[in-house]
Amino acid sequence: MLTREIIGDALRHERQSQGRTLREVSAAARISLGYLSEVERGHKEASSELLAAIATALDLPLSEVFGLVSLRLAEAESRAADNVVELRRPAQAA
Fold it and tell me: Which of 9, 12, 23, 50 has its CA 20 to 30 A from that of 68?
């Protein structure tokens, strides 16, 4: 999973948990609705300035956004490592 996808997923989850629409958050962040949608879907890489604007619009400290992303990245890395270990195990005889 790409970092931009993890960031977008965390932002979307937070927006939806607040019951807010893309339109509301994009207006508060002063970015286009389409661009926010692209960021949330992991299709666009958000600059630090853009992330700060979105975090402010969501009333979240930027450090909390990065904390959420860090946790999700660690989970993704753990799952990837588990998959590698599983692939390396020899098949057991029946």
Answer: 23
Question: Does residue 40 contact residue 4 with C-beta atoms inside 8 Å?
Answer: no
Report the domain count for the chain.
1
Residues 73-89 pLDDT 10s: 998 888 888 776 666 66
Segment 11-19 long-range contacts (CB within 8 Å, at least 24 positions apart): 11/39, 11/40, 11/54, 11/58, 11/65, 12/40, 12/41, 13/68, 14/58, 14/60, 14/65, 14/68, 15/40, 15/58, 18/58
Reported pTM: 0.81
